[in-house]
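Protein: WLM-domain-containing protein
Species: Pseudomicrostroma glucosiphilum
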Amino acid sequence: MMTFTLTHRSQKYTLTLPSSALVSSIRQEIHYLTSVPPSNQKLLPKPAKGVTLTPAATTDVMTLQEAGLKDGMSIMVLGATAEEVGKVKQEEAEASKWKQPRNYHPSMLQGTKPRSTATASAPNPFHSIAPHASLSQDSPLHAQITAYLSRLAHDPGIVHICSLHGYTVGHLTELLPWQNPELLGLNENKGQTIRLRVRTDDADGLRDYKTTRTVLVHELAHIDVSDHPPEFKILNSKLNAELAAFEKNAKEGRHSLVEGEMYVPAESGSTGAGGTQGGSYVLGGAGLRSDESSTQERRDAILQATLKRMEKLEAEIEGGCGSGSSERPKQ
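Structure follows.
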């Protein structure tokens, strides 16, 4: 006989089965205890490093011993219940119903002409957001993390740089601090999924928003460039500069129809730089006069200043980025 300790959403269960039992039988017992259907279950045995049991015809017909399970093991169970999955599908169906184009009677369309409007909002570049699948919807953190991720996905500066570069992200979610403590962000398959560390190390609070947003910009750059070669650093700095320019222009009520920094002429009689801050150029500042340097020179100066100002932060983010690692992090 083999005895296991099961953990599902902080709830522990003890299960005893013969060693000759199949993996499918342990899934049935887990379904009875947790209400998570076998098809939704992902089993993480500990301390069996690297062993993960996902629903598959090959693993479910193995005995417990053949699958690498041993007596006394702890097994973490991940997966949503059938009720939770049904609720999500129902919400998606209702949302889809409301998003469908309105059907008008033909008599109402007589004499009308199609028109376009410049104020029509573009679709959000993040197709879906959600906390980690192991977090219960009943947890107070669920709503907080959802709101945090939603704020990132709808951040005007983030949406702006995604629009400039044509970036889209399939799914935005979180990295758990206790599973990959060394990682701050991870971009999987060129933006198919981006995972960010949003919880503090004690998992009870949320990390600083602007720091996490900088990590998100870093992971967005990995949509174009894998790993961290020099061209990645240049692109990452460009994205941060574009975000800073957008926020500065928005704060000062300026609007630009072209990509890049804006030229703002100095006031009459002004002899000071006027557009510097902390020894570096400020995007959109009056210190970058069009008669003193070309557009490319101004852009290079901005990139160099941004590189210098963010060098320390970027070193920390790069060290905590899993997008260039050959070993797949835990999820």
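Remarks: Residues 230-251 form the longest helix (22 residues).
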